[in-house]
């Protein structure tokens, strides 16, 4: 199958490697000429996935129209806040597997809703969403990984699963698009929270509490949006949450660690080339919760630290001082 991967960051590159090694004809689109040149000349993404050899069969381009025209299937791995800009003038009539995670700023839309707005609800049968505990570097090293692919039309899911599935990458399926998307978005907020707690040297008890109560927040907002509660017990919920909140490769946890150590958000972002999706998602999730009347205390604490310059230790103290209640 001819597959175009849109987005040559670490995750897009790892997905391109995966499907190329599964025997597909892969064209990788990069927004950056430097990244494209490195992949073409060295068969390695020296910027975002350094030290990992890529199959020589992967072709790379900076021409989005060429990538779209090549595709029988598109794998989209662009930053959430760039989705509209990237796809504004495209007309995709082929299946699209979306790997972006987050909530769009201002509109407060999940990624699935953004794509439906761009392409029209009548094309939702072509939209699929990949999520779950999957660090790009570990995928590229062929470390056993399991993820979930969600789709609106379950009868088409098996053919999409087969594109990715192999002996080290296991693809499960679900019809709960909203649950998968929400779990993938909010786990990044919780990863910032656990990073902050770790940066403050609070220890394992605090980390476990944030992960557990963070899952309760995700499920609470999910219920309001019509997601299935069982989804949050799976790979796209608990699985991705645990990985992102505890793994050293987590960009969002790294942001939290540095905030807890006393750095400002501006200082942290100036050091990072890759996007930490949890930063804009925190703002979007906080505003969405306010709009829907859903209580998200951990998200609110992270929002105050990121956007109101509240000292991290003070925000955690305020979080712990809330009135007692039943679990």
Automatic annotation (TrEMBL):
GO cellular component: cytosol
Pathway(s) this gene product operates in, as recorded in its UniProt entry: Membrane lipid metabolism; glycerophospholipid metabolism
Annotated EC: 1.1.1.94
List of residues binding NAD(+): 7-12, 136, 251
Main localization category: cytoplasm
Active-site residue list: 187 (proton acceptor)
Alphabetical UniProt keywords: Cytoplasm, Lipid biosynthesis, Lipid metabolism, NAD, NADP, Nucleotide-binding, Oxidoreductase, Phospholipid biosynthesis, Phospholipid metabolism
GO MF annotation list: glycerol-3-phosphate dehydrogenase (NAD+) activity; glycerol-3-phosphate dehydrogenase (NADP+) activity; NAD binding
Name listed for the protein in its UniProt record: Glycerol-3-phosphate dehydrogenase [NAD(P)+]
Organism: Turneriella parva (strain ATCC BAA-1111 / DSM 21527 / NCTC 11395 / H)
Lineage: Bacteria, Pseudomonadati, Spirochaetota, Spirochaetia, Leptospirales
This protein's encoding gene: gpsA
